[in-house]
Amino acid sequence: MPSWQNFQPFIVTGLALGGVYALSGVGLVVLYQATGVVYLALGAVGAMGALISYSLIAAGVAPWLTWLVCLLFSGAVTLAYGMIFGPLLAKREPLVKATATLGLLLVLFGVMDLLWTTSSGKVRSLTFPTDGHGFSLGNVNITWTQVIGLAVGIAITIGTAAFLRFTKLGTAMRAMANDREITATLGVPVRRVEAAAWLGCGILAGIAGLLLADMVALDATTLTFLVISSLAAALIARLRSIVLTFVAAIVVGLVQNMLVPIPALTSYSNMAPFVLAAVALLLISRRRVITLSREEA
Question: Which of 46, 69, 196, 213 is most deeply packed, by most CB within 10 A?
Fold first, then answer.
């Protein structure tokens, strides 16, 4: 086993990535509660936004402007998809809804493979001004980008919880999660509420894409399928609790990264989100079966 000092840098990385997984997971949960759709294309939307930002920076555009373009692109694509296909999927089965968003993922992945296939031998990278600055905690160097990753996850979780609790739009989203048809009969503008959920999820996808492109790699495949970690956190929370989604995302980030310095488990680190989600779902299902058995008895 590696020493404690060997684990410390990976703990910092795990917390930073966990914060990014959390903000993506929160977007997945809110969208699912409002529309019933599990948005599997979230990672692909963020990845394409980050690649667009990279190309614009290479063309001489100011970085802050390209980040804004990334957010606008992610929000616009997600909103357009929701407005076009959302009504058609409203009364369909959950499997159909998830498969439809998987189709969007494959379309975007194909476009990225077509437009950004080669890099002429150069390694693509998207860097923030905060990468070269930070502080030391013990023997570990921590960049401000890593701090931002965790801080943004915390801020999005707290802000979203407050939004859902204290605003009219948030109350409408919670009401739709309980009963969509009754909410509509009460005069709530369902389409407007859904549009807000789609747009918000898209913007969060763009933020996650930018942060992950800097922390992990600016690679279409890697960024597209990092949504699995966020989805695992959301599934552990049963696509219901925002706070539990945040906690699960931090755990997923930590476990995934703390396996890396262990030679025998390094190659299995990418499996951690699957395993954690599967174990959590099995435990939840087992507890539910036991509860139902006791009620019947």
Answer: 46
Closest listed residue to residue 49, CA positions, set 65, 71, 81: 71
Q: Which two tokens stand for residue 102?
A: 């998987």
What tokens were used for 53? 């930002």
How many Å apart are CA 258 and CA 255, to the nearest integer? Answer: 5
A 10 A CB-CB count for 185 gives 9
pTM score > 0.85 for this model? yes
Cα distance between residue 40 and residue 19, in whole Å:
19
For residue 137, list its beta bridge partners: 140
85 is written with which tokens? 């296909």
Report the DSSP beta bridge partners of residue 16: none
* 3-35 per-position pLDDT tens digit: 778 888 899 999 999 999 999 999 999 999 888
Joined together, the tokens standing for residue 284 give 């939840």
Lookup: tokens for 233: 């956190």
Eight-state DSSP code of residue 92: S
Cα Rg of the chain (Å, integer): 20
Q: What is the pLDDT of residue 288?
A: 59
Helical segments of 116-238, H only: 144-166, 168-178, 180-185, 190-215, 220-225, 227-236
Residue spans per domain, the chain: 4-296
Do 230 and 61 form a contact (C-beta atoms < 8 A)? Answer: no
Joined together, the tokens standing for residue 143 give 């960049």
Q: State the Cα–Cα distance between residues 274 and 265, nearest whole angstrom.
A: 15
User: What HEC string does 116-146 produce?
Assistant: CCCCCCCCCCCCCHHHHCEEEECCEEEEHHH
**Could you tell me which CATH number the domain at 4-296 has?**
1.10.3470
Given a contact cutoff of 8 angstroms between Cβ atoms, the answer to whether 70 and 53 are in contact is: yes
- Other beta carbons within 10 angstroms of residue 92's beta carbon come to 13
- Which of residues 168 and 147 earns the better pLDDT score? 147
